[in-house]
Amino acid sequence: MARPALSTVAELLKPITWFPPMWAFCCGVVASGVEASGRWPIIVTGIVLAGPLVCATSQAVNDWFDRHVDAINEPNRPIPSGRMPGRWGLAIAIIWTVLSLLVAATLGPWGFGAALAGLALAWAYSAPPLRLKLNGWWGNAACAISYEGLAWATGAAVMAGGAVPGRRSLLLAALYSAGAHGIMTLNDFKAVEGDRQMGVGSLPVRLGVQGAARAACWIMALPQLVVVLSLIAWGRPGYALAVGTLLLVQLLLMDYFTDAPTPRALFYSGFGVPLFVSGMMVSAFALRSLTRGVA
Questions:
Q1: How many helices (DSSP H) and strands (DSSP E) are in the chain?
Q2: Is 2 exposed, middle or buried (0-12, 13-18, 19+ CB in 10 A)?
């Protein structure tokens, strides 16, 4: 059987998608309040696990089970274009799953358990019989939890020697996971026609383009508002002001996005999402200051 080029394998694993879980893991590291000195091997391993391994696995799994949809929406992708021949796409997904678990085992029970949960969600999202992506509500939730909540909680836990993260850290991880559900919806506007033909019930298919755009904006904004209120309640008004300012700019961009969702979804992803994830790190530093008793 012909082998795919290394550049094609890299394209299948989509390095551009690795940033969110890597960033969320780093947010968990910061939020833990634990000094990074002497823990860099753990931190680097966790970052690699979150991005180039678990997230990359999810991309390979998704491309294999979405190859018929991609033939309509993105025929130049590695599998439908024929550059990834035979069953190489599935083989790479399986190999990366095993490799991810082997690396995760070095991070202790929490790291292994989180990786196992993330991989299970990745396969459940794309593969039958669950194929959660057929329902935009469930599918986007699976991605958001894997990319943000699990990665954040893992970063906090491994820095604390495997202990369960504090309630405040878990709350922020959950809130940003909820907000990320809306971010996942942004990715669906480019594939409405193919999704409709192949029975994929993304939110733009289920709610219509305008309805999905409004839902995505509300889903992104409301958790961030709760973050702002939480930071105020925890005695961190300066951090709350920073997150609130980032949210305000997002609201202005959301107004522009919802006027023409399909052509502007990529624009909002490029400019609005960085503001969202910046707020994540600001919140992580707020927790760090609380842990260390710094005003």
A1: 15, 0
A2: exposed
DSSP track, 180-228: HHHHHHHTTGGGHHHHHHHT-B-HHHHH-HHHHHHHHHHHHHHHHHHHH
pLDDT digits (tens, 9 = 90+) for 223-234: 999 999 999 999
DSSP string of 24-77, one letter each residue: HHHHHHHHH----TT-HHHHHHHHHIIIIIIIHHHHHHHHHHTHHHHHHH-TTS
Q: Considering the entire predicted model, what is its pTM?
A: 0.93
Among 85, 89, 91, CA closest to 2? 85
Please give the single-letter amino acid code of residue 69: V
- Distance between CA atoms of 129 and 188, rounded to whole angstroms? 21
pLDDT at 165: 86
Q: For 52-102, write each residue's pLDDT tens digit.
A: 999 999 999 999 999 988 888 889 999 999 999 999 999 999 999 999 999
